[in-house]
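My current task is to audit a protein record that another person submitted. Please read both lines and tell me whether the tokens look consistent with the sequence. Do not assume that whoever made the record got everything right. I have pasted the whole thing underneath without changing anything:

===
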Amino acid sequence: MFTFLRSFFRKKHLFLVIQVACGTLVFYLLYASGLNPVIAFAVISLAICIAMVFMNQRSIRNAEKVLEGILGGKDNTGKDLAHLCKELENHVSELNSKIKGFKAKITAVNMISMQLVDTSAAVAFESEETSKSLEFMAKAIDEISSGITSLVNDNDMCAKMMEDLSNNINSVHERFQETNSKIKHIKSANENGQKAIGILEENSLKNKNELNEVIKIINNFGDELKNIWNFTNLIKAIAEQTRLLSLNATIEAARAGEAGRGFAVVADEVGKLANSSRDASDEIYRVMKDIESQFTNAVNTVGTIRKFITEQDEVVNTVKNTFNTFAGSVEEVLDSIREMEAYMESMEENKNQTVNAIFNISSATEQIAASTQEINANIHEQKNAALSMNNTAKEMSILAVELSQSVAIGK
């Protein structure tokens, strides 16, 4: 009988060890499979409690069989019976305390299962809300991706437009270079024209001075011509007076007769001389008339030349002012061209910066597009994970309800 009891308690302890080992193994497997540790612990605890209850019930039934055998006279050892009763009493007391502990554990498991129901419901609600948020984020990311694609297209269009603008700027810059070269040639020609105008102005001044000298000479010649006229008139008057005197002398010689014959010859010669002087004075008068006419023509010609030189001076001054104004305009045009070249260089620099910015924007948009695609993929994965978590939470809620019902039945 003692052998039976000894084997009985050994089997009991061995069975407890096996229960703990199996419970630990099952808990590890459930935890490794991704099940919530609280649920795994609750399931293992419930299984161990049920197994221990069954084991103790079997032990009690075996003890009852032994007692029935003793009371029936099959075993007459009273000492063994007292010892057995003592051990049985201790075992029953231990069993009652374990049952109380099991009830407390079952109550705790029930509370945990109820909390698990609430938690799984909250997790299901949050996972559903998370799924909706992820779906909204996925739509937003799709819209952002579409906008980025449009931005990339617009950026490519801007790059093409900037390339066309660069070509236009280069063309305009070449035209400005050609215009600048032509303006420089015009400036050189204008400078040559100004030099020629300067030479013409100097020559005109020389001609004017020489003409003034000629006018002085002509004026002096006019004065001399007047003196010649006076001398010619005087000679003519003297010749006329001499002719009259010779005529009177001839008359007086004729009155004197033979005595005045010699005086008549002299008077006749004097008369001839007077006639010759008169003829010479007439010839001089005619020549002086021609000279006077030519002098008048010379004076008129000099006046015309002087007027022409004056008009030429005015024209030279006008042309000079025109060349000076043109030179100023050429300088202004050259300054404007230099400013435009500076603007062109600034535009070229700004164009290069804009092209670099567009290139950077293009690279950034490509990176953003790749990132949005990756984010979109991650969001879809998170959405699937949220849906899976929602389903898992629902399954957990069902398992928790079943666990609560099982615990209620175990009570």
